[in-house]
Predict the 3D structure of the following.
Amino acid sequence: MDLEHCRAVLERAGVTFDSGLTPDEFEAAEARFGFTFPPDLRAFLAFALPTSKGAPTWRDLENPGLINMMDGPLEDMCFDIQHNVFWPREWGERPLEVSEAFEIARGHVARAPKLIPVFGHRYLPDRPATAGNPVFSVYQTDIICYGSDLENYLHNEFHYYFGTPDYSLGCNIRDIEFWSWLVALNE
């Protein structure tokens, strides 16, 4: 990914940036939230840190907005379990008590790759810890792939500014444990 070009295009789109994260800041975020930044997201955030509305506040790890972003996928799933009858049959019979249903969902999410917020409700999984993981749009249990990798996501999110066609994923989308299965449920 050409980081200079991406930053220039994103700035034309109105995204603001601060200096990139330092190794100590990466380490603090990873320790605080229990994940590892994949190399492509790490390189992007080390080059320049987005600070626009909707961007994660990686320099303020106790910011309620960042904490909500980190907790969002599970909280959204629990909302749909309680209010929208979400319950995949692969999880077995749904418990009568909603708190028990939440515990089952928590277990599945805890075993899955952590979702790292990229922007708004767009997330990149931390596993595998290699470049090229897809970016998911997570809104409750309406989960779709929004980019086959970080660069493709940026082109999809800001297609007008990159001069690329509307939303396109390409053909090689890495399968991500649990999250890709949820995407398939929505197809």
User: Anything to note?
Assistant: The longest strand covers residues 142-147. The two ends are 29 Å apart (CA to CA). The chain has one domain: 3-185.
